[in-house]
Amino acid sequence: MNHEWYLTFHGGEGRSDLNSIHVYSADGKKLRKALDRASLPADVELRELRDHVFGPDGELYVANAYKNSSQIIRFRGKPNKDGKHVFRDLFVRSDAVRNPGFSHPFNIAFDANGDLYVTSQNTSLALRYHGPNSDNGMAGSPMPLAPSLAVAKDRKFMPGTFCASAKEVANGLVVVRKAIFAGGFLCVADRDADCVRKYDPGTGAYLGAIAAPSMIDKPIHILEKNGVLYVGNRGNESVAKCDLLTGQVSPFIHPKTGGLNNPAGLAFGEDGYLYVASRGSRQILRYRLSDGWPDRRPFIDDLEDDPEFIALVNPS
């Protein structure tokens, strides 16, 4: 299969060329940018791109995270003749009245029904939106509150809230980062609470936290494979793993092993390795899945900026 690596950088307003998805070959060679800027409307500007996933409709969804441009942008999933994805529409956008909880999106996830979940950094919420194939509401609009929150008639929550913040509920999210569906849970990294919180994916009920003081320290990115959750930690520059069945947490990549410095995006390769975006060293590193042993050389070195999200995709 024609796999390529899709990578976003921290970006910002200083260099517009960084504000795209950058494409590398399966063996780490720089190829091109993935998004067709010429297809963007005049009022849409790419700034600080974060997560990027292919949705249930086959289209490419990208988090545009700049403070004045909080959006989930939908691009055509099939690249054009130049290998680039053409703009389709703004699927979700910030709106002070209709969508006030959506600010500085970080992570995108789709559930089994095809509905969209987004973590919002500035409000520390996990928000839920009608998916592209929804029969129950307008695609991209906030869904009803999670059932576990809707019963609290004495409290008001932002439209679309599925996981509330610590300002709103006990055991709420303090500083949210990545959320994924794994092991029958919605797992959400709560950076400043030093844990990964678990929620019932149907009701949004809080089901407890995965925490290990010496191993889970300022978690940012999480990833799951075969019932094992991998947790990238900013605090101690490591990756821990957790058996979602037993709850047992153990080290996977020990602090700073292989030059790891501020781990960001995590992705599985087809070669038995876990790939890790190392923000502080501006590298993509890889570690053997069987034992966490680092490859002796960076997979990609001397990146132009701090890497954020990375994914191995087959865009064709």
Summarize the structure.
With 316 residues, the protein is mostly beta strands. It has 1 helix and 23 strands.
What does this structure look like?
- There is one protein chain.
- With 316 residues, this protein is mainly β.
- The chain is 1% helix and 41% strand.
- The chain contains one helix and 23 strands.
- A hairpin with a 5-residue loop joins strand 8 and strand 9.
- The longest helix is centred in the middle third of the chain and has 4 residues.
- The protein is globular.
- The model has no long low-confidence stretch (mean pLDDT 96).
Can you lay out the helices and strands and say which pair or pack?
Blueprint: E1 4-9, E2 21-25, E3 30-33, E4 49-54, E5 60-64, E6 71-75, E7 87-93, E8 105-110, E9 116-120, E10 125-129, H1 147-150, E11 161-163, E12 176-182, E13 185-190, E14 195-199, E15 206-210, E16 219-225, E17 228-233, E18 238-243, E19 249-253, E20 263-268, E21 273-278, E22 283-288, E23 307-313
Antiparallel strand pairs: 1-2, 1-23, 2-3, 4-5, 5-6, 6-7, 8-9, 9-10, 10-11, 12-13, 13-14, 14-15, 16-17, 17-18, 18-19, 20-21, 21-22
In helices, the fraction of residues equals under 10%
Strand adjacency order, main sheet = 3-2-1-23
User: How much of the sequence is in beta strands?
Assistant: 35-45%
Uncertain regions spanning at least 5 consecutive residues: none
What average pLDDT do the residues reach?
Answer: 96
Radius of gyration: 19 Å
**Category from helices, strands and their pairing:** mainly beta
Oligomer: single chain
Structure keywords:
single chain; 316 residues; mainly beta; 4-stranded antiparallel sheet; 1% helix; 41% strand
